[in-house]
Amino acid sequence: MNTIVISPEFYNYGSLVVAGILKNLKHKVNYFKGFKNKINADITFISLQSTIHLLKYQKNINSIDSFKVVGGPVTMDPSMVFKYLDVDAVMVGEAENKLENFMRKFEENKLDEIEGVILKDQKDEIPKMIHSNSLDRPLPYIPPDIKNENIRGANVYIETHRGCPGNCGFCQVPKFFGREVRSRKLNEIVNEVKEFVKMGARRIAISGGTGTLYGCKKFKEINEEAFIELLKNLSKITGKENLTIPDIRVDTVSPEIMEAISKYTNGWVFYGIESGSEKILKKMNKGIKIETVYEAVELAREHGVKVAGSFIVGYPGETEDDFEATLSLADDLMLDDYFVSIAEPIPGTPLAEEVKNLPLDKNPVFMEVNDTNVSTIAEFRALKLMLDSYVFRKIPMPMTEKLFNMILKEVKSQSKHIKTVTYMIKDMI
Ligand code: SF4
């Protein structure tokens, strides 16, 4: 079978895995980044990461003349995919476990027999999320120019495990991958990283929702031995300066883990801190206490590990006092770097459900504010926190006009994106 796999913006790991499996099944596979190439295929698999892609690439996708299947995080809400895109099927959730059967049934013209694949004429069906027990699979397709890829500083994010026992209201990992952690075999991860490095990739990030859960079985019962072994083995291949662990929960660290991060990686941790208000943390279902944030930051410092923290503003119900608490925590922590986002209602998450029913004039993303630079409460808080973070970070940076404009542009862009997604989930566009 002649197939094409498309990822619109970057070499998204999930789409590389899909292309690798199709190749292994002996199908002819072409992999395209973006929509510039001429499509000539029996089936085109399109991997979409963000709700906004449904609008942004609507024209490109609708004009493809082939049987079209959409996969990726947007499949959490198949009816929304069919609303915006003229495609034939949506492969809901994890794709690897369905591909072989899908290709067989496609040839037999019996696609309606596959669980977890919704066809155009079944668009109102509620999808079933199927999580496979085994994460064994062939090597992903590795593009020849992988060394030029830059996804938040890495050439590629390698999956080490799936699922998260956490249940944060803004995150789609627990539903998409489940709350039970499933880890890949160490030798498979090692072989994969070796192949990426052989093909020219240098900077490797490991991902799986929250890094230190590799090998763990129950929530917060981290498997130090498995995680340390993972870092040790990967670091041998990449060199410590080229290995990154992006996201970690503040309650899944220990001195041993921090020591290993210091010894085997580029020496950064990225904590999901989100808010300085216990009330908002509870509303987010984050499951962490502020004191745990302080302890985790301190632990990293004791081991010479740098800390970046992510914060979310404009969550429904966030008051001025809640935001002040976030500002005060962010100031107090004096982190090495800060990432600030306006709360995004990703379809399928509890946050999206809340936003769907929340009147716009009660949503901080739309609530107006009187300010010369921004027009909504969420924009105001994002701008304030981003600007202040340059002052209270460990090594403060002077605020130049250029930097200010860059930050303002980022805030406006986030706000525009999230307003559009909100209109989409509220069925207003
Ligand atoms: S801990 Fe991280 S991966 Fe897990 S649910 Fe929360 S945000 Fe998602």
From TrEMBL:
CDD domains (UniProt xref): Radical_SAM
Superkingdom of the organism of origin: Archaea
Keywords: Iron, Iron-sulfur, Metal-binding, S-adenosyl-L-methionine
Protein name: Radical SAM domain protein
PROSITE patterns, per database record: RADICAL_SAM
Annotated coiled-coil segments of the chain: none
Domain Radical SAM core: start-end pairs: 150-381
